[in-house]
Amino acid sequence: MSYNVEEMNWSDVRNLFRKWRDDNERKSEDVMQLWDSVLSSKQSKLGNERHLVLEQVIIAALDCNRVETAEHCVSILSAEFPGSLRIQKYRSMLLEALERYDDALGELDQIIRKDETNAAPRKRKVALLKTQGRTAEAIKELCEYMKIFMSDQEGWHELCNLYLAEGEYAKAAFCMEELLLHNPHSHLIHQRLADIRYTMCCGHITNSKATPAKRKEAQKLAQWAMGQIQSRTEPPTKATKVAHKAGKGGIESNGELQALEQAFGGLEVGKLTN
């Protein structure tokens, strides 16, 4: 949104910034426009809100790739609060924007060592590792986080996503089961858990290590299931009636063989027939 900055004084902008903070709205481009036009030269008039406004400007500047502005605000806060973990977190975000990822991880590790119960730097570290494609390390870090913050539902969701990216379906299902304990009536969680279980089932069928006899038996059951489906979806023919009465279990045509292969996720049914 474009503002008529010529008609706005510093108190109007301060009140607008305060409203955005209370409503949890970032409005990054608007913040930068009003900061450059009005508030940057009126910092001394902000009183106790000055530090909050500087933090707000840091986030907006990083969103808009205004690294120099973010660096200036971080340096002001660092000079006033040299040992603040909160300011150190902003320094790590600035290092991320500069693509100095190792230095950013170092800052986050320092914060975690000083305050192990601080959730923000741990989440930031997981996000940074994920951004770099270091999924295994992100999973390890997030597991350590979940040991401390076991009731964090967003953490379980993210851990599930990371496990799915690595093909660890059993561990992903465990994460969804943990979420069910927090929200047992959520149909979305039930649906996602069902999707994961279904994927696991298809994988077991495709990569079955059962003995040939068991696989032969499974093929016969599949043949019976296919016949039941066809009897409900297609008009019965004389041949199918005779086959059902005789209880035959063999595959009569290549069409049925292909249908079975598709239904069972690529299971090599052809190798099981005599």
From TrEMBL:
Transmembrane segments: none annotated. It is a peripheral membrane protein. Gene3D superfamilies: Tetratricopeptide repeat domain (1.25.40.10). Residues 90-208 form the EMC2 TPR-like domain. It is found in: Endoplasmic reticulum membrane. GO terms for cellular component: EMC complex. Keywords: Endoplasmic reticulum, Membrane, Repeat, TPR repeat. Belongs to the EMC2 family. Part of the endoplasmic reticulum membrane protein complex (EMC) that enables the energy-independent insertion into endoplasmic reticulum membranes of newly synthesized membrane proteins. Component of the ER membrane protein complex (EMC). This is ER membrane protein complex subunit 2. It comes from Anopheles atroparvus.
